[in-house]
Amino acid sequence: MNFILTHKDILARLASCPPLVEGYLNLELQMQNNGFDITLRTAATFTSPGQLALDNNERTLPHLLELEFGEDELLTLPPGQYRIVYNEIVHLPKDVIAFGFPRSSLLRCGADMRTAVWDAGYSGRSESLLVVHNPHGLRLKRQARLLQLVFLQLGEESDGYHGAYQNENT
Known about the structure:
The protein is mainly β and 170 residues long. 10% of the residues lie in helices and 39% in strands. The chain has helices at residues 7-14, 27-30, 104-108; strands at 3-4, 21-22, 31-32, 35-46, 64-66, 74-77, 80-86, 89-91, 96-102, 111-114, 123-124, 127-132, 138-141, 145-153. The strands form 3 sheets. Strands 1, 3, 4, 5, 7, 9, 10, 12 and 14 form a 9-stranded antiparallel sheet that branches. The chain has a 3-stranded antiparallel sheet with strand order 2-8-11, with no helix packed on it. The longest helix is centred in the first third of the chain and has 8 residues, at 7-14.
């Protein structure tokens, strides 16, 4: 049977080995009723095109320029697209997938997060696409909560993720 993990389920899985999420900054702030907020580690701009094909051997990821936080620990981002890396490392068991949703405060600031499905068996410090739509830009404090992960228990265990991004950024 499929179901979304509750607060209680997530807390139990945080205590497992490996934990569902490790490296979180403040459990009380990041734990939600039906999910877990993950936080900003780094941001970068794209400096070249990427390439995708049917076969991943022909995949080319774009070059990136890491952005520096100011002395006030803030990034000031003009409208545009940014690659975000999170602080937290996620360890999904083979019977759990995750979906990432932008926090409503981010949407209210005129920005959005784009993510792919977090496959069962994936482990790593993931990346997402931040799109700033607000014509006045967006200011982000280091370690800002940007995305809420919602975890879905699968009806049975899968083979698990075996892609190129396994253990990324760890």
